[in-house]
Amino acid sequence: MKASRSAATRAQRIQRMMEEKPVITYQDGYEELAHAIILLAVKDYRKVLKILAVEPDHASGLKVKRGYESFFYSRWFGILTDADPEYILERLNKEVSA
After folding, report:
1. For residue 41, which of 75, 72, 4 has the smallest C-alpha distance?
2. Which of 74, 76, 79, 2 is nearest to 89 (CA)?
3. Longest Cα pair distance anywhere in the chain, in angstroms?
4. CB 52 within 8 A of CB 62
5. Which residue, among 25, 45, 38, has the nearest Cα to 79 in the 3D structure?
6. Using one digit for the tens of pLDDT, what is the confidence trace for 16-52?
7. Is 53 in a helix, a strand, or coil?
8. Which of 46, 40, 38, 30 is nearest to 78 (CA)?
9. pLDDT score, position 29
10. How much is the pTM?
11. How far is CA 56 from CA 5, 37, 64, 75, 79, in A?
């Protein structure tokens, strides 16, 4: 009897938790991960552009910049988002040069 009461209590707590908090699906997690990947690439690309604004011939900066540009035009980027890579890169370049 005690075991069934504690199981019922657990079930009630789980039910309350489900009512209080939205259920997160796997799809939500994948979308959040995709957004995080893209946001990190944007931040890193912006950082490289700022370095190159000060030192345009910075060899490793140029190499990293090309690597990020390759990512933004890659198939992998297209899988992660429908965003236009040209628009993102143009906007970041304008932002840093302003």
Report:
1. 72
2. 74
3. 77
4. yes
5. 38
6. 766 666 666 677 788 889 999 999 999 999 999 999 9
7. helix
8. 38
9. 83
10. 0.72
11. 71, 26, 13, 29, 32
